[in-house]
Every structure is written in C-alpha cells, then in structure tokens.
Amino acid sequence: MATLVSFHAHPDDECIGCGGVMRKASEEGHRVVLVVATRGEQGEVPEGFLSDGEQLWQRRVAETHASAEILGVHRVEFLGYLDSGMMGEPANQAPGSFWTAPVADAAEKLAAILRAERADVLTVYDDNGHYGHPDHIQVHRVGTRAAELAGTPRVYQNTVNREHMQRGMAALTAAGVEAPDFDTAEFGKPESMITTAVDVTPYLDHKRRAMRAHASQISEQSFFLAMPDETFAYAFGTEWFIRDGQGPGITETDLMAGLS
After folding, report:
1. pLDDT tens, position by position, 183-193
2. What are phi and psi of 88, to 5 degrees?
3. Which of these CATH numbers, 3.30.499.10, 3.40.50.10320, 3.30.930.10, 3.40.50.2300, describes 3-243?
C-alpha cells in the first residue's frame, strides 16, 4: 500500500481537480490523505443558507469531510490559513492569509504531514494555479517546496488541458448549446506540457456526489452539476497532471503506477 497526499487551496477544490484520482487510489488499496490550506472563508453563500450562528468556514469544513468520505479519503488536515480571496482583493493582504504566508513556513507544515505519512505521491497545482488564483499559486509554491523538504519522490501538478477545454467549448457551440463565458486562453496549460492523463470515468459518480456535498458553493444550477452526463464526462472524465522528468507529451496514465 502506497500513500497519496493531495494538497488543495479551499474546500471543494479537491473534488473538481483530483476527485477521481483520489477515489481510484483508495479503491486500489492505497492510503489517501487530503490537505487543505484554508477553510474557504471568502466563499459566497445564498442568504439564509447557513443556520443561525453558523459561520461559513464551519459549513465548508463539514462539507469537506463529507466529500472526503465519498472520495475514500483516510485523513483530512487543514493547514489553518485564511482564504485570500481572488487576486487583487483586500483579503490577499489580510494577516494570516495563505497568500501572505512565508513559503518556507507553510511548506514545513505540509512537509511534516508528508514525513509522518511517508508519502509516495503528492499532488499540487500548476504554477499559475489553473487560472491565477493567489491561493492556488501558493499551493504550487508551498507544495513543491514541501516535497523537497520531505523527500517525496513523485510530485504531480494538477492542471487543465487547455486544448481539451477549447475543443469541448467548440463542440457545445456547434451543437447550439451556450458555452460558459470565460477566456480559456489563460486557463490551465497547453496539451504539449501535460505528461499525465488519468481516465477517471469509472469514478464520475463519486466525483459528482463529492461536488454535491459542497452545497454551499456548488449548487444544482451550477456549471458543474447542471451539465448533462455526457458533457460532464467530457469535462471531468480525465484528470490532467504535469510531472517533472516525464514527457515530452503524455506518457503516464496513473499516479500510483508501480507502487504497492
């Protein structure tokens, strides 16, 4: 049995980018550990959604544990930093925000978990954090440094296949379906940079259920849950990664290959 540690910025990030690989590893008998940098305090929630006296972070922590159970996670840890909000917002510079945390300090916190777990594999994000979110960028910086400190042998940068997304958008438009309105040019990484494509279609039900567990942030009307099954499978049926020392091109299909 090997150990996979998946490091994320906020509650709900884990199921979107790595939900399939976590469930896959768990079903194959590996230990899966989820580490989240913040408790998602800057998220938005509909009025009246929370119970009287309940704070958003409390709900999001509970949602993370519910999602983790669906994904087969054995241990959940929060590093305790504050959600930094979107790039350019005042929350970026708030005392205790993840964005302002010294990389060395945060990396040592994560490295302590990696050492204790004797982690074989760590997932982080690409260097632009998928789309430039400060906490996602910090996950890349902190995660890669923590792996160096702990000697974790395999590090995979979770990313988005930009061309795959663009092909999907074009197909929706051609079919007369309104595609989401956002610029894909700066989203994820070019396909030529990606080294690892994991087919997670057998775990899409778990992945969608884990998204649904984050009801404060992912409503039934959201982009993630409202799409038809076929579109969901195209969008989320493959999870993409960049591993240093691999490639060029996609040369791997399993984060845990060869580990037992």
Report:
1. 777 889 999 99
2. 90, -5
3. 3.40.50.10320
**Tokens coding 228:** 């038809």
Q: Sketch the domain layout of the chain as residue ranges.
A: 3-243
* Residue that has been written with the tokens 């998946």 in this structure: 6
Cβ 82 vs Cβ 97: under 8 Å: yes
Please say if the pLDDT value at position 47 is more than 90: no
pTM: 0.95
- Smallest CA-to-CA distance from 60 within 20, 99, 14 is with 14
What are the tens digits of pLDDT across the range 214-224? Answer: 999 999 988 88
The predicted pLDDT at position 227 comes to 86
